[in-house]
Amino acid sequence: xxxxxxxxxxxxxxxxxxxxxxxxxxxxxxxxxxxxxxxxxxxxxxxxxxxxxxxxxxxxxxxxxxxxxxxxxxxxxxxxxxxxxxxxxxxxxxxxxxxxxxxxxxxxxxxxxxxxxxxxxxxxxxxxxxxxxxxxxxxxxxxxxxxxxxxxxxxxxxxxxxxxxxxxxxxxxxxxxxxxxxxxxxxxxxxxxxxxxxxxxxxxxxxxxxxxxxxxxxxxxxxxxxxxxxxxxxxxxxxxxxxxxxxxxxxxxxxxxxxxxxxxxxxxxxxxxxxxxxxxxxxxxxxx
Length: 288
Description:
The protein is an all-beta fold. It has strands spanning 5-8, 16-22, 25-30, 35-39, 46-50, 55-60, 66-70, 73-77, 84-88, 97-104, 110-116, 124-129, 135-142, 145-150, 156-161, 166-172, 179-187, 195-201, 207-212, 216-221, 226-232, 238-244, 250-255, 269-272.
């Protein structure tokens, strides 16, 4: 029998996103709730850090700090004091844009993308940040930058610009941080009335993609582009996923609240226990 997605924790997020397993806790953001949430599955305890703007992602740093992106650029958060220090705002001239999904490459660089909230085609971009905190464009002219992960060996980067409904693969150079030779790895058009959103990767290099408006997470083989498993979630707005728990064998899933439909568990965090794969450890941003 296929394991089922079960709600955990008590928080109802307006738009949960960007889950990451770090120090035996599950951290994620509530974009529209302007918050970073930390959930301890052992105790059920939740810690909420409120921010002054929408937050698209929050990721750990090697120094113990956290790096996050929102309406007004990239910031470094000191978890002890709660103070956030601005790093860069590469799209300060675009008031309809904000930072969205992000991840850390195997060599410790931050790759963070923006979303054009007015849906201007090509009006956003994917950016790269190195430990010198210099922000550069890694891949231009996207519309809604979303899931980004690397293969187990670090040689391939997979990336979603949601309106294309495709997963691109790039050759990745850890010496330069460059993304080269983009090609389509997966075409998600057969997943009807759904948009690929956040994703994670397992130790067998299979991609797990959350489908916004689609109420599911689907495991794909990027070598063939074929779907392998589907896990239904009782929320249309299924937004992202990551592996966590003992041995990184549980799949955590974030969700948001639909604009019109009322759903009992919308906005909750979910877990699928032992879905048949093992996740890859989260790499921290190399800030030292």
